């Protein structure tokens, strides 16, 4: 088990290194002069040259890379071109809010999706199953931003029940959470349903039924555990997808998280900030995937030996 | 099946846009701004007085173009890479696989956003960004097919009689992987449209005054309280298009998948 764990961690670390290198290259290889872009159009040639020297952009690429890595190990993600404040400060201030949104969505999606998928599989070809199938299809086809807007119109304006924007109160996470969860609900439900159908036609289920095991015990002891293996993987990997969708949801609801920060910095050409946010996002996704890999190895022993 | 009909309907509507409406989707008519749906303007007008129905129809063209070109890019790069990677194995395979896994594990919209930040806005860059996202799924698919037929007798026989590797790859591998590729392409078209519209919504995709559905939605944000029809219809359009593609993809998969499950 430890060997497997070590392998996963090393793979994750390498991936993070590769991604950070790609991000590093991306900024440097942009068309146009980054220093000029950051300095803005009003800056004089002198200012641009000063900025270039300060950002080490005049040094050879390998030296820049070395500096980049060194700064990274010290936790220094650079300075925002817009506010002149440390990037790490802003990003880590917003990180908890994005994670809160993603966690709430994950919870909603799992609590709704898994039971729905289970029931739909048990009652195959029933009305419930058909509704679920159609519903999940709609869920994965729906644009997140449109759903958000529609929900705002319905619940915040027409009915006045829930707040439309901001992250002040406890209730303000409900609408964005549901919006973000929609795609995942669809995916998780489908995954659970497919997995359950798979498990239900296995021989050991038939054996258990033949032995006279009553329905509920059957479900809890045999079906659930085996169904959940691929479902947990999906749930874990969905977290990464949720982070992507969080950008749009945060935009619609004005939720002050990392996604909104990313969009704002793209518009203001704040490259150090963009770099920092994407890096932290990548680190989050990679750690989540790592968690999924490790727990998968723990649950299903066959994986460890492959 | 229903999806196919919806899709054909959408496609025809988009192609026939100039015939179905006499309104110019781009020219501003400020005196008629923000009119609610009426007989003259079946879906109302937007904040610059342009007929919404006309914009949606022309926007359909735009979205379909983006979708097809982006998935086309994905196919053009992904298929050969996957085929070569699976056929030759070794370090090429390792490299391509690691790359594909990296791309796939990253949230796709974040990737599109980062690419947009790098490349800039506009139709071309949207197609490139969305296309790059589509590549890894095709690589994986083709590689799986290649691996499954590589060890079969007819491949060995072909090599014996001197058929070049390239011909083997083209003829046999691609022919065998056509079915899953078509299914995947259909599903990718749906998500391509979704992603492109997402970029448009944020203002990072196709720029106004082009009638792209996503940017129409983004522009309508300020009007959700006053003219609710304005954000409703573009979103509905995006939704139905993506739904149609997903229906077609699912339908194709169910129809062409030889494995039938009986519970």
What's the quick description here?
The complex is a heterodimer of chains A (306) and B (263). Chain A is mainly alpha-helical.
What do these coordinates show?
The complex is a heterodimer of chains A (306) and B (263). Helices cover 78% and strands 0% of the residues of chain A. With 306 residues, chain A is an all-alpha fold. Helices cover 73% and strands 0% of the residues of chain B. Chain B is built from 10 helices and no strands. Chain B is elongated.
Secondary structure blueprint with pairings:
The complex is a heterodimer of chains A (306) and B (263).
Chain A: H1 2-28, H2 34-39, H3 45-54, H4 61-73, H5 87-122, H6 127-141, H7 144-158, H8 174-200, H9 203-210, H10 215-253, H11 258-267, H12 271-299, H13 301-304
Helix pairs in contact in A: 1-12, 5-6, 5-8, 5-10, 6-8, 7-8, 7-10, 8-10, 9-10, 10-11, 10-12, 11-12
Chain B: H1 2-15, H2 17-20, H3 52-88, H4 90-105, H5 108-119, H6 123-150, H7 153-160, H8 165-202, H9 213-219, H10 229-256
Helix pairs in contact in B: 1-3, 1-10, 3-4, 3-6, 3-8, 4-6, 5-6, 6-8, 8-9, 8-10, 9-10
CA-atom Rg of chain A in angstroms = 24 Å
How many structural domains does the protein architecture of chain A include? 2
Give average pLDDT of chain A, whole number: 79
Contiguous helical run count of chain B: 10
User: Percentage of helical residues of chain B?
Assistant: over 70%
At CATH level 3, the topology of the largest domain in chain A is MetI-like fold
What share of the residues of chain A does DSSP label as strand, in percent? under 5%
End-to-end CA span of chain B:
24 Å
How many DSSP E strands of chain A?
0
**Classification by helices and strands of chain B:** mainly alpha
Low-confidence stretches of chain B: none
C-alpha end-to-end distance of chain A: 12 Å
Give the DSSP E fraction of chain B (strand runs of 2 or more residues): under 5%
If you average the pLDDT of chain B, what whole number results?
76
Oligomeric organization of the protein chains: heterodimer
Second-tier CATH architecture of the largest domain in chain A: Orthogonal Bundle
Helix content class of chain A:
over 70%
Could you say which overall geometry of chain B the principal axes of the C-alpha atoms support? Answer: elongated
């Amino acid at each position: 088990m430890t060997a497997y764990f070590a392998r996963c961690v090393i793979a994750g670390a390498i991936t993070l290194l590769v991604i950070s290198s790609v991000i590093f290259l991306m900024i440097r290889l942009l068309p146009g002069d980054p220093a000029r872009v950051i300095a803005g159009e009003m800056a004089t040639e002198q200012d641009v040259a000063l900025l270039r020297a300060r950002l080490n952009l005049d040094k050879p690429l390998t030296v820049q890379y070395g500096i980049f890595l060194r700064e990274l190990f010290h936790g220094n993600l650079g300075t925002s071109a817009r506010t002149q404040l440390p990037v790490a400060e802003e990003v880590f201030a917003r990180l908890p809010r994005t994670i809160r949104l993603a966690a709430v969505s994950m919870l909603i999606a799992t609590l709704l999706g898994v039971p729905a998928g289970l029931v739909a599989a048990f009652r195959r070809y029933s009305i419930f199953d058909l509704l679920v199938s159609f519903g999940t299809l709609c869920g994965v086809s729906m644009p997140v931003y449109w759903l958000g807007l529609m929900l705002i119109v319905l619940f915040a304006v027409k009915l006045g029940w829930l707040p439309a924007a901001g992250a002040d109160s406890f209730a303000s996470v409900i609408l964005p959470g549901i919006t973000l969860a929609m795609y995942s609900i669809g995916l998780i439900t489908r995954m659970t349903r497919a997995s359950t159908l798979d498990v239900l036609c296995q021989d050991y289920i038939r054996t258990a039924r033949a032995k006279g095991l009553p329905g509920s015990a059957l479900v809890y002891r045999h079906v659930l555990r085996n169904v959940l293996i691929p479902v947990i993987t999906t749930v874990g990997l969905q977290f990464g997808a949720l982070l992507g969708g969080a950008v749009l949801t945060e935009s619609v609801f004005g939720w002050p998280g990392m996604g909104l920060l990313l969009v704002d910095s793209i518009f203001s050409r704040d490259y150090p900030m963009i770099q920092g946010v994407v890096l932290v996002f990548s680190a989050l996704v990679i750690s989540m995937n790592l968690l999924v890999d490790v727990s998968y190895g723990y649950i299903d022993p066959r994986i460890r030996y492959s | 099946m229903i999806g196919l009909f919806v899709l054909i309907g959408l496609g025809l509507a988009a192609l026939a846009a100039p015939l179905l409406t006499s309104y110019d989707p781009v020219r501003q008519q400020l005196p008629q701004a923000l009119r609610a749906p009426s007989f003259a303007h079946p879906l109302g007008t937007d904040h610059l007085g342009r007929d919404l129905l006309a914009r949606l129809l022309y926007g359909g063209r735009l979205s379909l173009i983006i979708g097809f070109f982006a998935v086309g890019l994905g196919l053009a790069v992904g298929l050969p890479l996957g085929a070569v990677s699976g056929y030759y194995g070794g370090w090429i395979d390792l490299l391509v696989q690691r790359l594909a896994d990296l791309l796939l594990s990253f949230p796709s919209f974040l990737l599109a956003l980062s690419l947009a930040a790098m490349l800039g806005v506009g139709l071309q860059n949207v197609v490139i960004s969305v296309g790059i996202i589509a590549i890894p799924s095709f690589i994986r698919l083709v590689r799986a097919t290649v691996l499954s037929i590589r060890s079969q007798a007819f491949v060995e026989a072909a090599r014996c009689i001197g058929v070049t590797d390239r011909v083997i790859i083209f003829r046999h591998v691609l022919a065998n992987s056509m079915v899953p590729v078509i299914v995947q392409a259909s599903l990718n078209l749906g998500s391509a449209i979704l992603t492109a519209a997402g970029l448009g919504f944020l203002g990072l995709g196709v720029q106004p005054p082009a009638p792209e559905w996503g940017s129409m939605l983004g522009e309508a944000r300020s009007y959700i309280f006053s003219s609710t029809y304005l954000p409703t219809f573009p979103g509905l359009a995006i939704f139905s298009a993506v739904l149609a593609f997903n229906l077609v993809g699912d339908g194709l998969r169910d129809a062409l998948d030889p494995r039938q499950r009986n519970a």
